[in-house]
């Protein structure tokens, strides 16, 4: 089935999830042909959950001894340039660009766990997943789609977006199954799958940055901690810093990509759903989340 409602992103149901039509072929190609390397690191998420931030943090952590943090490439280029979105790369017929990357690579996809290329699982690559309160994910997606929309196209009303989201009908949805697949895998293989929440990243960035470095196999030395490297990385990747960079204010992510870099930096906090949803809508979405997560051990500590 083809759903038009998330225009300009047409989405198609594929193995239980709604995949944007423009990347579907690329994703099928990637599922068959992607050559994983054992030291690949994957940044994974349901879109609009904090992917860009996680990309910046993992890239800054991994390359911290290569570049001084005050001259870091993240000051000149958008995080998506260092951590490519695999489905888009395949969809554009540019898979050789991924092959050309030197190891260790950090790569990104929004695919649910069940749809990841098999090689990623069989090689035991490390996976980092970030999830976010679905209410804020929806609000973020709503604004993002409005930005992408050609001017001639009417925006969809928020109430319509809300209904569709609740039905799981949203790019890469349903969100709950997406989150649960990675949650369950992180419980089975905690040494290979790190499960993070956007809200806890906001709440305690130093703890998360140290946790990331440990998981990635490059923990901070006592000297680095004393020198304030953790804090510098947090500052380099902070929302205010990233949003204010000239490249992110003006740059196009890729010349042929409709989105500009600043589409990825909007408000950058928790709880913006309050400005969009009635209390009833919020309760409805929370109830769905509670029901879906029941028995899994996962709770989303929504910020009240
Ligand atoms: P909002 O639209 O609520 O502001 P993704 O990167 O998965 O597309 O998610 C985008 C969301 O993450 C946006 O949320 C964006 O503002 C927020 N974001 C981007 N960079 C961030 C950063 N450095 N710190 C915190 N949030 C960030």
Here the CATH topology equals Rossmann fold
Order of helices and strands: EEEHEHHHHEHEHHHEHHHHHHH
Bound molecules: adenosine-3'-5'-diphosphate
From the helix content, strand content and strand pairing, which structural class follows? alpha/beta
What is the CATH architecture annotation?
A: 3-Layer(aba) Sandwich
Strand order of the largest sheet: 5-4-6-7
Number of helices: 16
- Shape field: globular
CATH class: Alpha Beta
Alpha carbon gap, first and last residue: 37 Å
Radius of gyration: 19 Å
The mean pLDDT is: 93
Q: Indicate the multimeric state.
A: single chain
Low-confidence runs (pLDDT<50, min 5 residues)? Answer: none
Helix content: 40-55%
The overall strand count is 7
- CATH-defined superfamily: P-loop containing nucleotide triphosphate hydrolases
Beta-strand residue fraction:
5-15%
Give a quick rundown of the structure.
With 304 residues, the chain is α/β, with parallel strands linked by helices. It contains 16 helices and seven strands.
Topology (SSEs and partners):
Layout: E1 2-3, E2 11-14, E3 17-20, H1 21-33, E4 41-45, H2 51-62, H3 79-82, H4 86-91, H5 95-100, E5 106-109, H6 118-122, E6 126-131, H7 134-148, H8 158-166, H9 175-188, E7 193-197, H10 198-203, H11 205-215, H12 222-227, H13 229-236, H14 239-244, H15 246-250, H16 279-293
Parallel strand pairs: 4-5, 4-6, 6-7
Antiparallel strand pairs: 1-2, 2-3
Bound molecules: adenosine-3'-5'-diphosphate (A3P).
């Amino acid at each position: 089935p083809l759903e038009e409602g998330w225009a300009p992103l047409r989405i198609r149901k594929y193995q239980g999830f709604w995949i944007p039509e423009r990347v579907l072929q690329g994703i099928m190609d990637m599922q068959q042909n992607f050559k994983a390397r054992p030291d690949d690191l994957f940044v994974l998420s349901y879109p609009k959950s904090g992917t860009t931030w996680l990309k910046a943090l993992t890239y800054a952590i991994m390359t911290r001894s290569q570049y001084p943090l005050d001259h870091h490439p993240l000051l000149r280029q958008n995080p998506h340039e260092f951590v490519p979105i695999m489905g888009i790369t395949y969809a554009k017929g540019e898979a050789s660009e991924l092959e050309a990357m030197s190891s260790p690579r950090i790569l990104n996809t929004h695919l649910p766990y069940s749809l990841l290329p098999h090689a990623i699982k069989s090689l035991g690559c490390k996976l980092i997943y970030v999830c976010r309160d679905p209410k804020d994910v929806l609000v973020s997606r709503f604004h993002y789609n409005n930005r992408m929309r050609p001017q001639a196209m009417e925006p969809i009303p928020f109430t319509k977006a809300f209904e569709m989201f609740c039905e799981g009908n949203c790019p890469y949805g349903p969100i709950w199954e997406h989150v649960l697949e990675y949650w369950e895998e992180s419980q089975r293989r905690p040494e290979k799958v790190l499960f993070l929440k956007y809200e806890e990243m906001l709440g305690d960035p130093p703890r998360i940055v140290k946790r990331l470095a440990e998981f990635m196999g490059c923990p901070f030395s006592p000297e680095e901690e004393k020198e304030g490297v953790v804090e510098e990385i947090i500052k380099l990747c902070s929302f205010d810093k990233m949003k204010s960079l000239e490249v992110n204010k003006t740059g196009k992510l890729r010349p042929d990509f409709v989105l500009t870099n600043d589409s990825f930096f909007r408000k950058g906090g928790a709880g913006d759903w309050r400005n969009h949803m009635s209390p009833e809508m919020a309760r409805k979405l929370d109830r769905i989340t509670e029901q879906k997560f029941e028995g899994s051990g996962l709770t989303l500590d929504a910020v009240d």
